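tokens incoming
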């Protein structure tokens, strides 16, 4: 189908969209006088309209039962995380035993690295992406320091080649092979937060395993966005947040994946807490940590039920839509948005150009486009914000936008383009 940058064409695409009814399941920001275009689901997803009733159910149970809600609530709090497990596992391509929802993202990454970053002898190095999300950078740096290692030599960052925006995957694989038996762990963001580049996690995992290293991923920008197959790819561990594409409240709960070949190993080092203890004997409160089988053994504390209720509301929507259909629309709506931006750039090349630094290949990206605005500055971003576009600005002059398949429309893409063109300085 040949795209057209017209309102009529965008509306025709919306009419044919099998997920169009899901837009009505979400609240859209309304703090401006104009109808807004929300393109920051890669930062904070919209609130499901059902989230309020899910949370209210637990507030009512708290009011009615007090502490006995752990056992008497309709969804007993004692096992509340279990209501999320299978749905979350389907989103990331895992077996239920390999997944648990708990804590927050960076907390989970640290807990997982306690188990899977085990420097010994000359095998001390970590490979990561340069300019990873700052929280990942700080977490990795602190892990290296915690083990008394040298940041200059033991944290190996892979960066784009000079003059390029993306990291070449062959450079990652070549570096893994080069570091070889000195490599303890690979830990990379599955989707780079800045460029939107999707890495070949299966190939990276295989390369890491070939030299004897453990391989894990931060999936903050991948879960709910990319069609993942963590179990089949053989990834050792992963973690993701629930508040971006998964629409599960600000600072919401996080997911953990631990491959089944590790999940039943009580000998793995870990920072333990009582909610990770075997639930059949947990309340005997005996000394000596006996972990639950599977990823549940990495839990520390009992479930934050109100946050998990918001997460469950969103997971039920994902279950209804299905990741296959979400992925199909992701590729189509991102391609249309790309067309609109390139059309505007071509028509205004005498004043500026918009370079999309996200890969053009749909197999190498998700629902994000990062736009490098040549000849424009933050005034451009401020102007589209005033028109009602909620997007993200990154220095020096990149606008990040994410057309979330569950609630964004093709008309949103057209309107974004019109606002962008009107804002060119």
């Amino acid at each position: 189908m040949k795209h057209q940058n017209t309102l009529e064409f965008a509306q025709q695409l919306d009419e044919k969209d099998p997920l169009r009814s899901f837009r009505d399941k979400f609240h859209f920001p309304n703090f401006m006088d104009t109808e807004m275009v929300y393109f920051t689901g890669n930062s904070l997803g919209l609130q499901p309209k059902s989230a309020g009733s899910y949370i209210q159910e637990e507030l009512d149970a708290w009011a009615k039962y007090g502490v006995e809600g752990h056992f008497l609530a309709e969804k007993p709090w004692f096992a509340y995380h279990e209501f999320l497990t299978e749905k979350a596992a389907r989103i990331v391509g895992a077996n239920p035993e390999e997944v648990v929802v708990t804590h927050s993202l960076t907390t989970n990454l640290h807990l997982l690295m306690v188990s899977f970053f085990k420097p010994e002898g000359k095998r001390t190095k970590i490979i990561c992406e340069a300019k990873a999300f700052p929280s990942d950078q700080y977490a990795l740096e602190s892990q290296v320091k915690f083990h008394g290692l040298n940041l200059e030599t033991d944290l190996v960052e892979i960066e784009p080649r000079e003059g390029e925006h993306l990291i070449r995957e062959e450079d990652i694989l070549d570096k893994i092979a080069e570091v070889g038996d000195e490599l303890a762990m690979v830990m990379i963001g599955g989707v780079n937060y800045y460029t939107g580049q999707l890495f070949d996690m299966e190939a990276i995992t295989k390369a890491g395993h070939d030299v004897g290293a453990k391989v894990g991923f931060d999936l903050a920008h991948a879960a709910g966005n990319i069609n993942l197959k963590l179990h089949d790819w053989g990834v050792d561990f992963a973690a993701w947040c629930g508040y971006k594409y998964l629409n599960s409240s600000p600072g919401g709960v996080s997911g953990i994946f631990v491959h089944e070949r590790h999940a039943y190993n009580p000998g793995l080092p870990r920072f333990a807490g009582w909610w990770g203890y075997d639930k059949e004997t947990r309340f005997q409160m005996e000394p000596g940590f006996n972990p639950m089988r599977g990823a549940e053994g990495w839990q520390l504390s009992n479930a934050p039920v109100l946050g998990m209720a918001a997460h469950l509301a969103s997971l039920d929507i994902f279950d209804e839509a299905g990741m296959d259909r979400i992925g199909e629309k992701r590729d189509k709506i991102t391609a249309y948005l790309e067309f609109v931006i390139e059309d505007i750039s071509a028509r205004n090349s005498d004043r500026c150009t918009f370079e999309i630094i996200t890969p053009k290949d749909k197999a190498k990206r998700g629902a994000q486009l990062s736009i490098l605005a040549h000849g424009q500055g933050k005034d451009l971003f401020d102007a589209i914000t005033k028109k009602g576009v909620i997007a993200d600005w990154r220095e020096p002059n990149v606008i990040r936008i994410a057309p979330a398949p569950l609630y964004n429309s093709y008309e949103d893409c057209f309107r974004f383009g019109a606002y962008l063109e009107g804002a060119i300085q």
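note: The chain is about 40% helix and 15% strand.
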